[in-house]
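Task: complex structure prediction.
Instruction: return structure tokens for all chains below.
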Amino acid sequence: MALCAQLLFFLYLLQFQHLARADSCSGCFTQSSAAYYPNSDTQGTESGACEYGTFGATLNGGDVSAASNLYKNGVGCGACYQVRCTNAKYCSDNGVTIVITDLGSSGDTDFILSQHAFARMGQTADAGASLLSLGHVGVEYRRVSCSYSNKNITFKIDQSSNFPFYFAFQIWYQQGSKDIIAVQLCNADNLTCKLMERSHGAVWAAVPPSGPLSVRMLLSGGDDGDETWVLPPNNIPQNWTAGATYDSGIQV
Ligand SMILES: *[C@@H]1O[C@H](CO)[C@@H](O)[C@H](O)[C@H]1NC(C)=O
Ligand SMILES: *[C@@H]1O[C@H](CO)[C@@H](O)[C@H](O)[C@H]1NC(C)=O
Ligand SMILES: *[C@@H]1O[C@H](CO)[C@@H](O)[C@H](O)[C@H]1NC(C)=O
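Output:
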């Protein structure tokens, strides 16, 4: 009897694993729809909720997007998605790869693309113009790796920072297909660390320790489910200033 119960439990586990796998099918496309920013600015926006500022307007050649559910309270900032529209008359097979820089929805859309990105889903420039005149199209999307050639992850010290009392930065050039789910700030000399808070969007903040600073980032699990800490080789110098950028010295 006990054996039988064990066997049933085992079968149940197997089935559960199977379902879990189908749910997180990493290469699969999800059906949705997309609109585009109504402003005249064809590229990204400087005022996106991720708080990338002017960097957010030109990031990825202006192929950026606002997300609704995928924004995930800011965890989704910096994530890359392949988005392709589904109208065979106009749409290319590859669509466009965009970076999330903002929060927003329009009806049931998952994405509000920059006009630049929206038009790039077309097979040709003319097809892109036709898509723009439709305004709202069916799409399918999947998470893909972000890659920026010759760019390390970079810490842009937020203008809200106030040396030495309040320390906040945005994370630029996030790479790969995992989310940054926690950040630790350490005194680089004695490795006393504290967790930073995601203040909003891609901005992390803390009351900093004195001395040079070492930042550690926790990446979400991939298909294997293991979360991993990334330890950049470069420290942020003791005399950091608001507005400055510091190279982490690492790509992921
Ligand atoms: C680590 O260094 C900082 C700055 O020098 C100091 O304030 C702090 O007390 C040190 N912590 C420990 C545990 O030694
Ligand atoms: C910070 O200190 C370094 C040397 O430790 C110096 O080269 C650099 O100019 C300083 N930067 C600022 C902004 O004061
Ligand atoms: C990235 O960091 C490595 C060292 O970790 C450095 O050699 C390289 O020059 C950096 N790349 C850029 C574009 O700054």
